[in-house]
Amino acid sequence: MRILISVGLAALCATAALAQHIDNARGPVPVMEEHAPPPLQNPDNSDVRRQRAYAMQPPIIPHKIEGYQTDRNANRCMMCHARTRTEQSQAPMISVSHFTDRDGNFLAELSPRRYFCLQCHVPQVPVKPLVENRYIDVETMLRRGGSASTLPGRE
């Protein structure tokens, strides 16, 4: 009986501690409480390509996409980024990797597995990052004469 009471008290204390835990991404709201999400920010609409934050990062979308239809019936992104439209739109063409299927075969058109652009590409919003980005690209690291073992966080 004492063991059962002890386990029950421990569980109660753990639940109380969890309820008071604050997650930085959620703001000053305890984890176990519901809260309204912050309002959506206006996305960057500068149409300026940005440097990638890490190797192999999909490029971000440097313009507004509100109201774009991207479903199984239509993909609004391809009105500008398809290889047949880039000369007229002056938008960058989608990568050749988007024309290969899962077996590595080259296709004449966009691969179905790359059709939903927002699975990888996202609009940029000018907000303060939640965590500091300490990524150093390979070229910068080599210019400094470093190696993977000298990168921040690899002590």
Structure, described:
The chain is an all-alpha fold and 155 residues long. It folds into 2 domains: 1-38, no CATH class; 41-155, Flavocytochrome C3, Chain A (Flavocytochrome C3, Chain A, domain 2). 21% of the residues lie in helices and 3% in strands. It contains 4 helices and 2 strands; from the N terminus they run H-E-E-H-H-H. It has helices spanning 2-20, 78-81, 86-89, 138-143, and strands spanning 70-71, 74-75. Strands 1-2 form a two-stranded antiparallel sheet. Strand 1 and strand 2 form a beta hairpin. The chain is elongated, with a radius of gyration of 23 Å. The termini are far apart. The mean pLDDT is 81. Component of the periplasmic nitrate reductase NapAB complex composed of NapA and NapB. One of its GO terms (biological process) is anaerobic respiration. Residues 1-19 form the signal peptide. Its main location: periplasm. This is Periplasmic nitrate reductase, electron transfer subunit.
CATH class of the largest domain: Mainly Alpha
Distance between the termini: 49 Å
Query: Tally the helices: what do you get?
Result: 4
Principal-axes geometry comes out as elongated
Tell me the major beta sheet.
Answer: 2 strands, antiparallel
Query: Into which percentage range does the β-strand content fall?
Result: under 5%
Q: Give the proportion of residues in helices.
A: 10-25%
> Which fold does the CATH topology of the largest domain refer to?
Flavocytochrome C3, Chain A, domain 2
- Order the strands across the largest sheet as they lie in space: 1-2
Which residues form runs of ≥5 with pLDDT under 50? none
Number of strands: 2
Order of helix and strand elements from N to C terminus: HEEHHH
The pLDDT mean sits at 81
Q: What Rg is obtained from the alpha carbons, in whole angstroms? A: 23 Å
CATH architecture identity of the largest domain: Orthogonal Bundle
**For the record, what is the CATH homologous superfamily label of the largest domain?**
Flavocytochrome C3, Chain A
Task: Give the total of domains.
Answer: 2
What structural class do you assign from the helix and strand content? mainly alpha
